[in-house]
Design goal:
With 259 residues, the chain is mainly alpha-helical. The protein is built from five helices and no strands. Helix 1 runs antiparallel to helix 4 and helix 2 packs antiparallel against helix 3. The longest helix is centred in the C-terminal third of the chain and has 90 residues.
């Protein structure tokens, strides 16, 4: 049977687990926000890249389109998105590692739940027949004790037989007391097991679902990071290609514009 000390230790571990997950969730939230901010920043930079900026814009405005296009193309080629893409990957990898830690904690929890469930089921299996046996013994002793009490109270027992009957009555009371104590003891184990088993099963199943969900999240995040990398690399390649075509058209206006 679980002692108060065991119960306190279990509560402490549960509190520590909740505190750990709380901190990890907070950290993951910060990391995911960092990823979103970096991706947003990259997106804005890529969207604004094709537009003439600063001196490019001024040169184009005063009619020096070729110089504007040269500066524009040079700026695009010198743009270094790799550093920001790498930063997105760093945030993403940190999130994946963080999710991995939570997943590992849940895997450990599932192992603990399985062990607890096996022990509880074993105790329940052992206690159930013992509880029934002592319940039947207690019931039988009550009947026997009541019969002996009635016999003594009826006055049908002779004075010579009474001392032996009183001794028998005392022995029956002791046996009944022991039977009652054993019945209550095993009933407590059975009751506790019946209450604990579904709780542990639900906790284990919940942890398993969390493991599955986190595993999917980690894989999805990794795929998203790969897609972000390809997306921005492709986007900048397209931007530079269009800028090169624009420069050619500025040099030779006779070239047809294509969309």
């Amino acid at each position: 049977k679980e002692t108060a000390s065991d119960s306190n230790k279990r509560r402490t571990k549960m509190e520590q687990a909740k505190e750990f997950e709380g901190k990890m969730s907070e950290e993951l939230g910060t990391i995911m926000q960092g990823i979103e901010d970096e991706v947003d920043g990259l997106g804005i930079q890529v969207v604004n890249a094709p537009k003439y900026q600063g001196m490019e814009k001024f040169l184009y405005f005063i009619g020096q389109k070729e110089r504007a296009s040269v500066r524009h193309l040079r700026r695009l080629k010198e743009m270094n998105l790799q550093e920001k893409v790498d930063r997105v990957f760093e945030h993403g990898k940190a999130a994946i590692v963080g999710l991995g830690k939570i997943e590992t904690r849940h895997v450990e929890d599932v192992g603990k739940y399985d062990t607890s469930l096996k022990n509880t089921l074993r105790k329940y299996k052992e206690a159930q027949p013992e509880y029934k046996r002592w319940q039947e013994t207690r019931s039988s002793l009550e009947i026997e004790l009541n019969g002996l009490n009635l016999e003594l109270q009826a006055g049908t027992v002779s004075e010579t037989e009474r001392p032996a009957k009183e001794v028998e009555l005392d022995e029956l009371k002791k046996k009944l007391h022991k039977a009652e104590m054993e019945e209550k003891s095993y009933l407590a184990i059975v009751t506790d097991a019946q209450r604990t088993i579904p709780i542990v099963q639900n906790s284990r199943d919940g942890a398993q679902k969390e493991i599955e969900a986190i595993h999917v999240m980690r894989r999805a995040l990794l795929e998203k990071l790969e897609n972000v990398k390809v997306m921005f690399e492709t986007a900048m390649t397209n931007v530079i290609t269009k800028a090169e075509l624009e420069r050619v058209r500025v040099i030779d206006p006779t070239i047809n514009r294509t969309t």
